[in-house]
Amino acid sequence: MTAGSLYRTLVPDAPLHRHTDVDVPVAPEFGHRVATLKQFGPGLQSPRLVSSFDGSIDRILLCFPSWAVSDPGLVGGYTSVIEALRVGTRFIVVHNASVGQAVAEWFVNAGHALENIELVPLPDFVAVTDWAEDAYVSLRDVTDGTRYLMEPWSFGRIGDALIADAVEEHTDIRASGAPLIFQGGNCLVGDDFWFLGRDYFADTIALLADGRPPVTIPSGTEPGAFATELFSRYVDADRRLIVIGTKKAIPLRQYVGTRTGDDYYLDIPTEGAGTFQPIFHIDMLLTLVGPNTEGVFQVLVGSPRLADELLGTSSPFALAEVYDGIAEDLERSGFAVTRNPLVHRPTLGQLLTLAQLRALSRQPDGSALVPAVVELARAGADETTMVRVRDWHHITWNNCLVENSQTAGQHVYLPTFGHGDNADLATVDSTMRALWEELGFTPHLLGDFSAFARRLGVVHCIKKYIDRGG
């Protein structure tokens, strides 16, 4: 991910409240983080995460900031989810106070009863995002059934760290904290296992090795083993933890100078990328389906290569080989893997002269631009040559809602993107619908999530599963 101030200079029209804003840095550094861990709840004895796939979606948490409720590019996505989820679903709805009535009307208009909606108002001065998945994980204590939102050691995305406390105040759910680094979107919960993206496992080890760690590694204990023990103690006591990602850091530069014909580009390929993961959250590239007819657990793994073949496009910065490696690792671990298209495409931005880019490269935060400026000059650009900024992002159907239920049936709630400027993606919408039908699921096609993807998230990112049935 690129340095914030320089990125905004290069891409001034980038949307606000992107999913990666104030996210974990590429190189784990924790000096800017504030230790806000509350006392660990003494009543929690045996934590168990809420499944990412298993059972009916009975209760779900959503968050609607005031700035988002007035954005037509987002409202269509929100309301399509509310309309698609079956009547009888219970909702926890966090919202800024001024938009509470408008948000409540979305649910009523979709046929949901008011008694199934728990409104959690936040003052308008509390700045939150709609990425409700991330600031905690959802679990319950199997000893007494108490539900928890378990928060990481720190979470820096504006006021999202206040959501769990507000939910605790207005519902039966408790908020607690753990001396670990994680975000909900980098966790996927299976039957006897759960996945955690390697980036946050590495960050947890870095936290434990810090000069003033929240907990002390016992003498003679290997840091990775102790981190695994902590995840078992605070997050899930019974499922085995499987870390997802590459063994070595992915070599990806922040800026690349590219020439295509007579056109020059400054490519920004790292937005949304992780250090050991091709995308910063694994729910953007993996989907848990459930056991197949042979009893083997099925996982969908995104493939930029398949998307390029389907669309006739080329994605030079998509890291297709990293996705392939993750798929191969899962197959070796005994999972049944199905590949599906995942798009990596640019948004064309402003034109800058090479001279302007050279000047930016000399700014205190601009050193990463230097190699790209050199590349452009070597490709034939002079100081007056106009260079187009291309800001790359992921468009993913893996980031969906899965309901693999014996009582309610098998359903998947799929984002769509084949609209307007992205009309070519209707082909992928149809392909994904057919794929899920072949898996035995009923697809529910949601609204246009292009504006969400531009902000580096999709539908799985805007919710939190709280309760699932059979």
Describe this structure in words.
26% of the residues lie in helices and 27% in strands. With 470 residues, the protein is an alpha/beta fold. The strands form 6 sheets. The protein has a 4-stranded mixed sheet with strand order 1-5-6-7. A 4-stranded mixed sheet has the order 4-3-2-21, with helices on both faces. Strands 11-12-17-16 form a 4-stranded mixed sheet. α4 (100-109) links the parallel β3 (90-96) and β4. α10 (354-361) runs antiparallel to α11. It is globular. Mean pLDDT is 93; it is low at 24-42.
* DSSP strand tally: 21
**Oligomeric state of the chains present here:** single chain
Question: Reading side by side through the largest sheet, how are the strands ordered?
Answer: 1-5-6-7
- How much is the radius of gyration in Å? 22 Å
Write the layout of secondary structure elements.
Layout: H1 4-10, E1 47-49, E2 57-64, H2 66-69, H3 72-84, E3 90-96, H4 100-109, E4 117-122, E5 137-141, E6 147-151, H5 163-170, E7 174-177, E8 187-189, E9 193-197, H6 198-208, H7 223-234, E10 240-244, E11 256-260, E12 263-268, E13 286-291, E14 297-303, H8 304-311, H9 320-332, E15 336-341, E16 343-353, H10 354-361, H11 370-378, E17 386-395, E18 401-405, E19 409-416, H12 426-438, E20 442-448, H13 450-454, E21 463-468
Parallel strand pairs: 2-3, 3-4, 6-7, 9-10, 12-17, 14-15, 19-20
Antiparallel strand pairs: 1-5, 2-21, 5-6, 8-9, 11-12, 13-14, 16-17, 18-19
